[in-house]
Design a protein that fits this description.
By secondary structure, the protein is α/β, with parallel strands linked by helices. The protein has 3 domains: 205 residues, Rossmann fold, CATH 3.40.50.970; 162 residues, 3-Layer(aba) Sandwich (Rossmann fold), CATH 3.40.50.1220; 186 residues, Rossmann fold (3-Layer(aba) Sandwich), CATH 3.40.50.970. It is built from 24 helices and 23 strands. The strands form 5 sheets. A 6-stranded parallel beta sheet has the order 5-4-6-7-9-8, with helices on both faces. A 6-stranded parallel beta sheet has the order 14-13-12-15-16-17, sandwiched between helices. Strand 22, helix 23 and strand 23 form a beta-alpha-beta unit. The protein is globular, with a radius of gyration of 25 Å.
Length: 617
């Protein structure tokens, strides 16, 4: 008879997680770097007790908010290029539902995240329990059903033995390069405490390695044929380049064939800024160099990107009607978008196979030379936006320049929302792969500080700089205290433009009246807030100061490098100024009918822009 081990469901869960391994840089390490936990009645007695028993095998981290602790786990996994990951557990009800937003962040960005929310009693005898959401027409529905549309795999553990197939399936999804994303195992709280005789083999150590699917021969032949006919080829590097650890392969490929490389938000840092084939950001927040090339491109090799509207200029950027898109992606869904020639494969392997088959072919020298010329032109333009001045309220671009001058390129920067993502995408000079971390798949306000914490946990020896606006800081800042508590130092640069400056600019650009975004244009307030962000950060245990100039900012950044804990630097910025060079139109629908002249004028511009949009190709 097979050997068994009698454990509660929660004990079996934690023991199983602690035995899952992977290989990073040639060393065997646990694939789960830890579990974020906020305990409540739905998980403290079951999962909480089990985590205590295995605290030497798998660490538990306490946070202040369920959503942001999951953000930290996402940023960790992204920084580790999906080689390692974390889990997050909560009680039922509000604690669980706080993680739904984070699940969507992981889902959109294809990041592995194991969510373990507590759930109601499987036996239903005490119903309705505290924090239970009841459906009048369906007794099987709980609040955790909200996770279903934002999970790659969802299961509800209502019997102890269900854990066995559920965890096996969870690991397959979490480690699959194509289906990777959040997994939710909804843990009924009575089931967590129930015991079962689990097969001892269930807890055998297992090593999960990264699968590198090779391309289909016919798809490869079609891609090679398309490239060999190209006169103006361009590469779009997405996050898949980084997850595949294909940066060096991409660098060699671009240099060998003279193909300029543009970058999505997720793909930025695939090539270092100094690489002469790196044209920088593509699309709505793109550089002048990238976009002028993409407008003319006859073949676009899209590597590891889901071709979000910001990358494609809402499908108005590619103006060459004869263009061909080659979708090199592990996920066929992404590889086949917009009538692309699919090349379903790992990014690194796919580029290698293309190289073998392209032989001595090269892009025309004139095209490669044009790309290099456009790159040099853009760098000169960008320098004008990042240079220092004595202006009272600097632009975001100038703050970016100050951070880069003070700390150099060999740091890691993280951001997620507002006006900063566009400015950083255009202007930040990334160094090594994954040194630039932008959550722009979901663009979730409040991700920044928590994400910075996760990024620092993944690379403790690097300087991690969090850049965010006052709006994002006010939405979620509590993990600043966690960074101090855990000893993971962050440098936070907080740009105070007194509200939601980015959306205020969009509101104005679409003809809208400025209101409800900036404090000074709020029609429903008695007092205009004057928030002392430095004092607030100090109250959370960080070192903090407010500076009044770009020169003072650069001095403060150098001081922050020497501090023993997280430091926050606050600077007032101009909400109306942004980098107008480069970039591209973005489809934001303007009202077709309005009493306001400004809206009608914006609608005319919008209708004109729509004519450039490609439908179905």
């Amino acid at each position: 008879m097979a050997k068994t081990v009698r454990l509660t469901t929660a004990q079996a869960l934690v023991r199983f997680l602690s035995r899952q391994m992977t290989i990073v840089d040639g060393k065997k390490v646990p694939i789960f770097a830890g579990v974020w936990a906020i305990f409540g009645h739905g998980n403290v007695a079951g999962i909480g007790e089990a985590l205590w028993a295995h605290r030497k095998d798998i660490p538990t981290f306490r946070a202040h908010n369920e959503q942001t602790m999951a953000h930290a786990a996402i940023a960790y996994a992204k920084t580790m290029r999906r080689r390692r990951m974390m889990a997050a557990t909560t009680s039922i009800g509000p604690g669980a539902l706080n993680m739904v937003t984070a699940a969507a962040v992981a889902h959109v960005n294809r990041i592995p995240l194991l969510l373990l929310p507590g759930d109601v009693f499987a036996n239903r005898i005490p119903d309705p329990v505290l924090q239970q959401v009841e459906d009048f027409n369906d007794g099987t529905v709980t609040a955790n059903d909200c996770f279903k549309p934002v999970s790659r795999y969802f299961d509800r553990i209502a019997r102890p033995e269900q854990l066995i197939p559920a965890l096996q399936r969870a690991m397959v999804v979490l480690t699959d390069p194509a289906d990777c994303g959040p997994v939710t195992l909804s843990m009924c709280q009575d089931t967590q405490a129930e015991a079962f005789d689990y097969p001892a083999s269930f807890f055998d150590e297992k090593i999960w390695t990264t699968r590198r699917p090779r391309p289909d021969e016919d798809e490869l032949a079609a891609a090679v044929k398309a490239l060999k006919t190209a006169k103006k080829p361009v590469i779009i590097a997405g996050g898949g380049v980084l997850y595949s650890e294909a940066s060096e392969t991409l660098k060699a490929f671009a240099a060998s064939y003279g193909i300029p490389v543009t970058e999505t938000q997720a793909g930025k840092s695939s090539l270092p800024f100094l690489d002469e084939m790196n044209m920088g950001a593509a699309g709505v927040t793109g550089t002048g160099a990238s976009n002028v090339l993409l407008e003319q491109a006859d073949v676009v090799l899209a590597v590891g990107t889901r071709l979000q509207d910001f990358t494609t200029g809402s499908w108005a950027l590619f103006k060459n009607d004869a263009k061909t898109i080659i979708g090199l992606n592990t996920q066929s869904f992404d590889a086949s978008k917009h009538r692309a020639l699919p090349l379903v494969a790992d990014a690194k392997v796919g580029l290698e196979e293309l190289s073998i088959n392209l032989g001595k072919w090269k892009a025309p020298d004139a095209w490669t030379a044009k790309a290099k010329t456009e790159r040099v032109k853009w760098i000169k333009v960008a320098e004008n936006y990042t240079k220092s001045s004595n202006v009272e309220r600097p632009a975001d671009s100038q703050v970016i320049g100050s951070v880069q001058r003070a700390l150099g390129r060999d740091i890691s920067v993280i951001c997620a929302s507002g006006g900063l993502p566009g400015e950083l995408h255009k202007l930040w000079q990334a160094s090594s792969p994954s040194s630039y971390h932008m959550e722009y798949g979901f663009s979730c306000m409040g991700y920044e500080i928590a994400g910075g914490l996760g990024m620092k946990m993944a690379q403790p020896d690097r300087t991690v700089v969090v850049m965010l606006g006052d709006g994002s800081y006010m939405m979620a800042n509590s993990e600043l205290a966690t960074s101090v508590m855990l000893g993971h130092k962050l440098i936070v640069v907080l740009l105070d433009n007194r509200g939601f400056g980015c959306i205020n600019r969009l509101q104005h650009a679409t003809g809208g009246e400025r209101f409800n975004n900036l404090f000074d244009y709020n029609v429903r307030q008695e007092v205009s807030p004057a928030i002392d962000f430095a004092a607030h950060a100090r109250a959370q245990g960080a070192i903090a100061e407010k500076v009044s100039s770009l020169a003072d900012l650069e001095s403060a950044l150098k001081r922050a490098q020497k501090t023993d804990r997280s430091a926050v630097i606050v600077i007032d910025t101009d909400p109306m100024r942004s980098t107008d060079a480069g970039g591209h139109w973005w489809d934001v629908a303007v009202p077709e009918v309005s009493d306001r002249r400004q809206v009608r004028a914006a609608r005319k511009k919008y209708q004109k822009a729509l004519k450039l949009q490609r439908i179905g190709n």
